Amino acid sequence: MNEDLQKRYKHNSNMFLISYIFMGIMSGMAFDVLVTFLNQVAPTVAKSYSVWMGAATLLTALMVALAPKIGYKKIIISGPIISIAALVLVKFSDNTFSSIAITLGLLIGVVLFDAILPPFLTQYTTVENRDKVFSRVMYTNVMGMALASFTGGMLVVYRFATRLGISYSEAKALSGKIAEFTKEQNLGYTLAHKDALLMFIIVSIAALIPLFLLKEVKEDYAAKEESGKKKFDLKVLANKYALLYLVYNFLIRFGAGLITPYFAIFLGSLGIDRATVSMLVTLQTLAMCIFMMFSPWLVKKFGRVVSIGGLASISIPFMLIIGNGDKFGSMMVLAVGAGLFFRSGFMNAANPIVQSLPMEFVTKELRPAYSSIIFVSQSVATTLAGFFTAGFLFNDKFFGNSGYRIAYYVTAVMYTIAIVIMLTQFTKKFNRPQTDDKKEEKAA
Prior knowledge:
With 444 residues, this protein is mostly helical. The protein has helices spanning 3-30, 33-41, 43-47, 49-64, 67-70, 72-90, 96-123, 130-164, 168-174, 183-199, 201-212, 240-259, 263-269, 274-292, 295-302, 304-323, 332-348, 351-356, 367-393, 402-430, 436-443. It is 77% helix and 0% strand.
């Protein structure tokens, strides 16, 4: 690789990193301020948040599939633009339809970056620096999420206080008693969320600017012409381990879809004020970053499969602590905070392993197809979780607000089944890394 090409690759990687930091902030907003805003203006949309997350995942998968035709730059630039359009719509949001449009727009903008990250960074990095660049990009994105989670609630409370003409501390205390709001207070709280969301337009613009500076040429994305086009190979589904991993991944994603989008709503229902909710969500985001740092050591010490299954197992008791937070009385905030921190930390510590392990279940030529199947299965799991929460678990005809607590027990069962599958089926053959030749033999 000549020096000019290296400079262009490094430039494009750096521009993506800068943009991804700002989109991390947007992601933190989407899972905090947006969710509580929807719970105010369109509760049915909030309760089915995972449905829209799944829809956004599927749509972005289709968008990324266009990369060999139109390039990465045109696709990725659309992310912040769609986010800006969705945020502008917040100003005029007063019905369910516009709330759905806002939700889809913001989630597409966020998820698009996650979907395009692997092929984009693989193109603009070398084998020698790839792991380092991927790690740096992911950590900085998570830090952006933490920043948004921390400031989002404070922005809402600040604007809530301003609109009601009361002090910040009074507004903070009042935000923990949403069910007791007067009509005026409820309107002020809703408008405070709109104010906070509109401020994130600046963040979307900041994410967009570096993308215009990308230096892309056709050779970066255009597929090479071959004498016989390859069709989708169904052999990817004829592998025991590939199929079992799809089951494992589906169970984990479905379970996560029942609880993770609704942290802010559930904690608010426990009577925790809005600013404190954001602080707790921030802590669990930081836990992801901190615990992932120990991933290489865990792999070396216990192996990959045992690390994935063991860490997920440890996270379950902390998840149940969150679901029973109100049982801790005056220690509720401390208990829920600790539960959020350690659940998130242990469950996400093995994320780098989870991303790479499934590619060893299939041979080299089948990996792109298998990766696509995993991504689509995730969108299906998330969508079904949304239908389950909206139509049954959180539905007032069945469990209503109690469903948010029950969701933690359902997720615990899902995780337990998935962990058993992982540990019993994959440990023997895939716990320790193998040479490339042995990987190919096992996947065959």
